[in-house]
Amino acid sequence: MTFPDEVFLAAATAALDLDPPGWDWDVLDSLELWSCTGLGDEDERAGFAALFVAQGETLRSTAGLSALMAQAVLTHPGRAAATYGARSDGHDIVVHAAPEVVHADLAVILLPDSVGTADPAALRPAGGASIDPAVVSTWRIDRCDVTPIEAPSPDDAALTLPRLAAALEMLGAARRGFELACTYAADRRQFGRPISDFQAVRHLLAEGLVHVRLLADACALTLEQPTTDRAILLKALAGRNGRAALQVAQQVFGGIGFTAEHVLHRHQARVLALDAVLGTSAQLTRQLGLAGAVPSTPRLD
Amino acid sequence: MTFRAELRSWLDANTEELEPCRAPLRTFDERLTALRRLQAHLWDAGWASQGWPTAVGGLGGTAVDRAVLYDELTRHRLPVGGPLEHVEILAPPMVVHGDPDVVRGPLRSLLDGTGLWCQGFSEPDAGSDLAALRTRAEPLGDGFRVNGAKIWTSWAGVAKWCVLLARTGTLEERHRGLSVFFVDLDTPGVTVMPIRQANGTDELAEVHFDDVLLDRGALVGRIGGGWQIAMDILACERTSFAWLRHLHLRERFASLSAHVDRAGETAVDLFALGCTTAASVRRLARGTFAGPEAAICKVALTTTEQRLFDLALETAGPELLLDDRGDLARWREDYLFSRIVSVYGGTRQMQLSTLSRFVLGFGPEPVS
Question: How much is the ipTM here?
Answer without folding.
Answer: 0.96
